[in-house]
Design goal:
With 485 residues, the protein is mainly α. It has 24 helices and no strands.
Length: 485
């Protein structure tokens, strides 16, 4: 392949072609079917000779106007090729070795911009959680004011169904529209633009919720809210993963759930704060309070760097390097990550060359490694939503009222579930990179099943006559303990 300077140089693709044959894409697909594709993707630089690698790096720097970083780029490429030999690397100065080794010994030592980005992602997650549970405290109040009662609708089942429709409207929007908009929005507006747009939609929908005068209007407002929730929840974890250093990538992606749990807690606290006011004012303040966090996210994301991976995928390599410069402590680390990301993107492009949406979808099942990952992801994500824990997030106040609590006491009890949910999400944040995702799932899912069953079965203890409230201490205690656990 001819470089811009006109000299004969090789390339990463040529290296694999020489070793495996002309059709690299076919090779990689075939390797995947034999279970060996991980060998190539785990470290695509491993089999490339050093002199070949240095020529590739020089060609990369010439092509994308990064010649001022050539020496750092060469060092970074070799560090990526030999990640476990940093201490003995003769091509690194002692200071450079110390910086790279410190990534493992002090994995939370990073530039302030990375923490700014993490704060933005955390607030985006908290927005998600608050959108979920603010409605929890508002539901018992607006149900009466907007006419979602058996007396107004003619039957208990109709009242329950319409309440369920209003409560679930955001996730109905996510499922049929919001999540499907993620890809086109990211393609056009990049990660930052998509996060800004989705947060702005969430903020406007929050104001809309607080001003409605009928339940159909509230349903539409919450449906629009779901458009923001869907794209935001799909984009923010990807953005965090693409910007995070490898040693803390799992923790930074896990922060989505941790701070969603924080938002759930915050939504419950808002319910307690406003629950004692006039009912028609209280539920409007509870739902309207969710406007605050997305506005902060809109302001913060403006100052965050764009995802380097997205920039490389869109042929903006110099901008990708500048993003990494803001997110890493030294130019050496930025060069290492931008080149390694570039190689990963090139390899993926080669694998997916001449494939359309349907071909890629079929390969989710036809390639064994993809099939296993697809089934695992689908089962975990479906199980997370369908297991019943979201019922507690959306209906805990109503459940506690049916268990014998007064409205104010039920709001306080719901706040307790939110606090416990957040506190016990923190251990996962600090252990996910140590123990891994799978062991944590295997350990926690059985307990989730047991305590959800406990909560549900507790309603059979001393059931009250139809239309009356239970006053059984045993029933209330068992329901509360089950929900807290």
């Amino acid at each position: 392949m001819k470089s811009p300077a006109g000299s004969e140089t090789g390339s990463i693709q040529d290296m694999y072609k020489e070793e495996y044959g002309d059709d690299v894409g076919f090779l990689l697909t075939d390797l995947g079917s034999r279970g060996d594709l991980n060998v190539v993707f785990d470290n695509p630089l491993a089999k490339i000779p050093d002199d070949q690698l240095m020529r590739d790096v020089k060609d990369f720097c010439q092509r994308y106007d990064l010649m001022d970083q050539l020496e750092n780029m060469k060092k970074g490429a070799r560090v990526s090729k030999y990640p476990n030999d940093i201490a003995d690397a003769h091509y690194l100065s002692q200071e450079e070795k110390n910086v790279l080794l410190r990534e493992k010994t002090n994995k939370w030592d990073h530039p302030w911009m990375l923490y700014w980005l993490c704060t933005m992602c955390s607030l985006a997650a908290a927005t998600q959680g608050m959108d979920e549970t603010a409605n929890n405290g508002a539901l018992p109040l607006y149900s009466k004011i907007l006419g979602l009662t058996p007396e107004r609708l003619g039957s208990q089942s109709k009242a329950d169904n319409i309440q369920g429709l209003v409560v679930s409207a955001p996730y109905l929007a996510c499922a049929i529209l919001g999540c499907w908009l993620t890809e086109p929005l990211n393609k056009i507006f990049a990660r930052r633009g998509t996060i800004f747009i989705s947060s702005l939609i969430a903020a406007l929908a929050s104001i809309w919720e607080a001003l409605v005068q009928s339940w159909p209007n509230l349903f539409v407002a919450r449906f629009v809210l779901g458009l923001g929730i869907g794209t935001k929840s799909a984009t923010v974890p990807v953005y965090a993963a693409e910007c995070a250093p490898a040693p803390i990538r799992g923790a930074l992606v896990m922060q989505w759930q941790v701070w969603t749990a924080f938002g759930i807690m915050l939504g419950n606290i808002i319910g307690v704060a406003f629950g004692g006011l006039d009912p028609d004012l209280a539920w409007r303040l509870i739902l309207g309070s969710t406007v605050v966090l997305p506005l902060f996210v809109c302001a913060q994301v403006y100052f965050c760097p764009e995802s380097p991976r997205w920039l490389i995928q869109n042929n903006k390599h110099k901008k990708a390097f500048k993003s990494f410069q803001q997110l890493r402590k030294t130019d050496l680390q930025a060069c290492r990550d931008v080149y390694y990301t570039y190689i990963g993107v090139e390899l993926e492009n080669k694998v997916n060359a001449d494939k359309n949406f349907f071909t890629l979808f079929w390969e989710l099942f036809s390639i064994p490694r993809n099939r296993r990952a697809t089934w695992a992801t689908w089962i975990v994500m479906f199980g997370q939503q369908f297991c019943g824990v979201n019922v507690i997030a959306y209906y805990s106040t109503k459940i506690f009222i049916e268990g014998g609590y007064s409205l104010n006491t039920a709001l306080l009890a719901s706040m307790g579930t939110g606090i416990l949910n957040w506190v016990f999400a923190l251990p996962a944040f600090f252990t996910i990179d140590k123990f891994g995702r799978r062991p944590l799932l295997i350990f926690t899912f059985p307990f989730l099943a047991i305590f959800l069953l406990w909560t549900g079965m507790s309603f059979f203890i001393d059931p009250p006559p139809p239309g009356e409230t239970s006053h059984s201490v045993r029933r209330t205690a068992m329901i509360t303990v089950g929900m807290y656990l």
